Amino acid sequence: MDTSSPPHTPQALLKAERLTLAAVPLLDPQSVCRFAYKSNSDGTKQAYLRALREFFRGVGDLHPSLVTTEMVLGWRDQMAEAHLRPATISTKLAILRSYFEYLRAGGELASNPAATRLVPPPRLPEESPGRALSSKEVRYLLAGPDRREATGARDYALMMLMLRTSIRVSEAVGLRVSVFQRAGDGWTFKVKVKGGRERTLPLPPDVKAVIDEYLRLDRANRDSSGTGGPGAYLFQPSVNRRSFKLDKPLSTRHVWHLFAKWGLYTGVGRVTPHDLRRTAITRALSLGHDPRRVQMMSGHKNLNSLRPYDRARENMELNPINDLHYDET
User: Fold this and answer.
1) pLDDT score recorded for residue 317
2) Which of 131, 159, 177, 307 pairs with 226 at a CA distance of 20 to 30 A?
3) What whole-number distance in Å separates Cα of residue 89 and Cα of residue 79?
């Protein structure tokens, strides 16, 4: 009995396709890895690898020298048709553009097929698509978790930390117990930010108190599971049905689900982790803090990045037009 695959099977078609493309230069995965691993941030490395893998899979893993601007334009339009956010599309295009520029600088490409003048990114909305919670909504949200339970105390401490310091969710879940240090009469903590750098930020006493209370309530669980000690992750899952390992941090996806749950439970509506960062920055600006000082808190490299958070620009009563005059004083 002949057990070989007939010519029309997927296996045979794939084999024929490979033979047809045998003479076509293909992408070197090592080149992609070298580019991605220039970054010190694990999150950035993975983002680079995901975007480049997505594009090159779509063009049959062609060698970069065979990639055309039309292919990049097609990828951009395909993402738009899939209803990806303009910011997401712009980020992926920027990664691909940077990779081609990296190859061009190394003499491997003559030109960049993803250059901005050839592949314009989608126009970004001037206003941030997320929301900044009002003070009333913040109080409602914080009233949700049961702080008498370890998981409730954990969620409360995490929300308090993000609302008071404006750190990103990826920065919060990466914290370990040992990051908190005495500084005079107060406390500071170090957080790893984009690019693998470290920043030292002040920790408000009331936030330190709720973190200490969470650790106190979670002590028995950490002792029994062997996930305690100064080197342990600060915010840990209470259960892990996938691997049954608890010596790991909360994932950013887990935090998204937690915040969405508490937002709906308290009647605030759907809340995302970045909404808490946005709330902290917006609140600081609305209280009249100098934007450069707010920049110190948020860690934005460019002061212009704070503009979407400045809701005072929308307040017609504060517009200088109302007070501008040419009378003699």
Assistant:
1) 66
2) 159
3) 7
Is the CB of residue 287 less than 8 Å from the CB of residue 297? no
pLDDT in tens, 123-137: 877 555 578 999 999
* Same domain (yes/no): 143, 291: yes
- The residue length of the chain stands at 329
**What is the spatial distance between Cα 329 and Cα 318, in angstroms, rounded to a whole number?**
22
The predicted model gives 62-73 an average pLDDT of 94
Q: Say if 111 falls within a structural domain.
A: no
pLDDT 10s digits, 148-196: 999 999 999 999 999 999 999 999 999 999 999 998 889 999 988 766 6
Residues 294, 193: Cα–Cα separation, whole Å:
16
Co-location of 290 and 144 in the same domain: yes
Residue 214 predicted with pLDDT over 80: yes
8 Å CB contact between 192 and 174: yes
Say how far apart CA 306 and CA 150 lie, in whole Å. Answer: 35
Backbone angles phi, psi at 30, to 5 degrees: -65, -35
Residue 11 lies in a domain: no
Strand, coil or helix: 242: coil
**Residue 3 maps to a domain:** no
List the strands of the sheet with 180-183, edge to edge: 180-183, 186-192, 198-203
pLDDT in tens, 236-253: 998 655 545 667 889 999
* Strand locations in the chain (E): 180-183, 186-192, 198-203
Average per-residue pLDDT for the chain: 85
Residue 139 and residue 39 share a domain: no
CB-based contact 194:41 (threshold 8 Å): yes
Token code pair at residue 190: 């170090």
Contact, 233 vs 176, CB < 8 A? yes
Residue 56: give the domain boundaries. Answer: 23-105
